[in-house]
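User: Fold both of these, please.

Assistant: Here is the first one.
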Amino acid sequence: MNGLYSIRVSVRFVHELPSEPVTSSDSPSAAPAIGRPRSERARLATLEAAADLLVEGGLAAATMEAIAARAGVSKVTIYKWWSSRGAVAVDAYFHRFDETYTYVDTGDVAADLTTQIRLLLESFRGRAGEIMAELIGRAQSDPSLAETLRTGWLVPRRLATATVLQRAVDRSQLRPDIDIPTVMDQLYAPLYWRLMMGHQALDDGLAGELVRNILEGAAVRHT
């Protein structure tokens, strides 16, 4: 039965990336306990400062020293929540560019997917896309950062899209034998390819072309 349903994906999390080891002078154990309102204000100030530095100068600008100075907190305070500069940077990205995707079930899987892909294209055309490209590039030599991006960014979005595709299978709009993970790769990989390589524009027309080309092969054939 068709109707309206929403799958909301909001990413805010803290991960540990061992790109900057904690020294004895900056050890989290030396920090006071978390939980006071002042501590929460300090945490949010840190995220805002790190996000500002990312926007202004990328990962290179978001050092622990610069983040602490901009936020008006000590490095010890920062280490209460994050173990490294990389961890702060990734969490700050999701704090600033907090993407919430809502799938509206119109009963037309092609239209629903096209709308969602256009949202991601719009996001990637701005500063959020430039920073995401930098994070992906850095992740190629930083396994912990790569895992952070997979679990915090990729996995929730794939789960949401898989739900949409499975509903289409259940409604006999798509073949029951399709491999949903592969279909998702085919739908979204070109966006990241264009984002990283810059060989073609991330224009809205790409969304419809991808959905049309890929779902045509996955559609149920009526004879």
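And the second sequence with its predicted structure:
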Amino acid sequence: MATLVPTLTLTSSDLTSDSLSLTVTDSLTVTNPFIGPSKKACAVSGGAKVDLDATGSANKYVFVKHSGYQSDGSTATTNKLEVHLHDGSAARDVMRLEAGEFAYFPLLAAAKVQVVSGSSQTILVEYAFYTKG
């Protein structure tokens, strides 16, 4: 068993009349299997969704980031990254990430994450999975 410490910080001095300063930290117990920070290329719109998934039968913590680059890792793209959750019977389009945006969320063991580009360019996706301990 190991410990994973996620921290989310939201700050702004001009969003509202009051300054925003919100920080949330947790300490999560994780175990094998896991996929540390990795990269995969996803297909263009209309292509096959690419699985970003660790094997195992336990719940997971998932990190997904739109790198801002096409699959070659050097050509910029502004295409949206479509993130789908597959529940065993169908894939649901649950979020669209723009270049540089990311998501971190818990995922049930029975579900898997799939990605595809929202347009005509491939996207290099950064991702990680950590199995809940």
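The chain is about 0% helix and 55% strand.
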